[in-house]
Amino acid sequence: MRIVLVGPPGAGKGTQAVFLAKNLSIPHISTGDLFRANISQGTELGLRAKSYMDAGQLVPDEVTIGMARDRMQQPDAAGGFLLDGFPRNVAQAEALDEMLGEAHMKIDAVLDLEVPEEEVVKRIAGRRICRNDSAHVFHATYNPPAAEGVCDVCGGELYQRDDDREDTVRRRLEVYHTQTEPIIDYYKAQGLVTTVSAMGKVADVTKRAMSALPGS
């Protein structure tokens, strides 16, 4: 099965992608992983991507599409895959359809993880990271430390990343609405989209997502 997972920042796409891919026995292909792998391996596409990133510029669609094409052609993706963070815009969605069409394949389902905008802001802006170990993550509302500003694990200082500040989160949401959300209408025209509430416990969201897939 070939699945595209979409949703705003803070919807839990990364978490759900891992569980869904495991349940379906297909690889989880994320844009972030593609970039890191290509850059660390020093591939031509990775070097091109790094040059744009180092200059503070967006990586062009053709570079991202090239990385995705290479990954989807690997043997473990022959039986399907779950895409997380790609396609990011309509041009990439069209390129993906063209790539798959050349191989006589197609996307089987698009899962749209839905979260109210204010919940997104609350989820991300409340996040606090330990300066000593970024794996120690707390949340002002959902998982507060015993002592405010102090990591329960090691006693390190907890801080809010610049990316997690409310004004930054709202700008990220604007980018999502402008660039990525249009792919939902693109796929709706193909009858592929199912909206899944991403509210509640992680396991419950996974169950809803699995139930939304064709043949479930």
TrEMBL record:
Keyword Chloroplast among UniProt keywords: no
Residues engaged in binding ATP: G10, A11, G12, K13, G14, T15, R127, V137, F138, G200
GO molecular function: AMP kinase activity; ATP binding
Subcellular location field: Cytoplasm
Principal location listed in the UniProt entry: cytoplasm
Keywords noted in UniProt: ATP-binding, Cytoplasm, Kinase, Nucleotide biosynthesis, Nucleotide-binding, Transferase
Top-level lineage group: Bacteria
Binding annotation for AMP: T31, R36, Q57, L58, V59, G85, F86, P87, R88, Q92, R161, R172
Renumbered residue ranges of the record's region NMP: 30-59
Signal sequence segment: none
UniProt domain Adenylate kinase active site lid: residue ranges: 127-163
Annotated GO biological process: AMP salvage
Listed transmembrane segments: none
EC numbers on record: 2.7.4.3
Listed PROSITE patterns: ADENYLATE_KINASE
Catalysed reactions, as listed in the record: AMP + ATP = 2 ADP
Biological pathway: Purine metabolism; AMP biosynthesis via salvage pathway; AMP from ADP: step 1/1
SUPFAM superfamilies tied to this protein: P-loop containing nucleoside triphosphate hydrolases (SSF52540)
GO CC annotations, alphabetized: cytoplasm
Family to which the UniProt record says this protein belongs: Belongs to the adenylate kinase family.
Comment, domains: Consists of three domains, a large central CORE domain and two small peripheral domains, NMPbind and LID, which undergo movements during catalysis. The LID domain closes over the site of phosphoryl transfer upon ATP binding. Assembling and dissambling the active center during each catalytic cycle provides an effective means to prevent ATP hydrolysis.
Xref: PANTHER family: NUCLEOTIDE KINASE
Subunit: Monomer.
Task performed by this protein: Catalyzes the reversible transfer of the terminal phosphate group between ATP and AMP. Plays an important role in cellular energy homeostasis and in adenine nucleotide metabolism.
Protein name per UniProt: Adenylate kinase
Gene for this chain: adk
